[in-house]
Write a structure and sequence with these properties.
single chain; about 110 residues; mainly alpha; about 70% helix; elongated
Amino acid sequence: MVSSGGWRSRGYYVLPLLLGSFPQEAQRVKETLLFILFNEHPVAMSQRMADYAVSAVLHTCGEESPVDANSMVLGHLILKPKFDALGKAVREERRPKASMGIHTEPS
């Protein structure tokens, strides 16, 4: 029996292994792992989608290709705050103004 979310995690562990086997796809593989690092959606009782990608980058990729792992960690450190700020701006823009107590007068 596979634990909750366990079958999903296996794909993430394979992605770093593809870097050596398919060097022409390395950029796409690294981008995919980087974007998965941004995914905060829950997949198990106490895990997020990003948790699986973190394990793949730190363990599998860190062992197979430390330079690629470091580039993904650095990319995450640089881009994650910008990603979060953009998400917050979009949510605030979409939030109905009436729910914040702001009422506009029709012109």
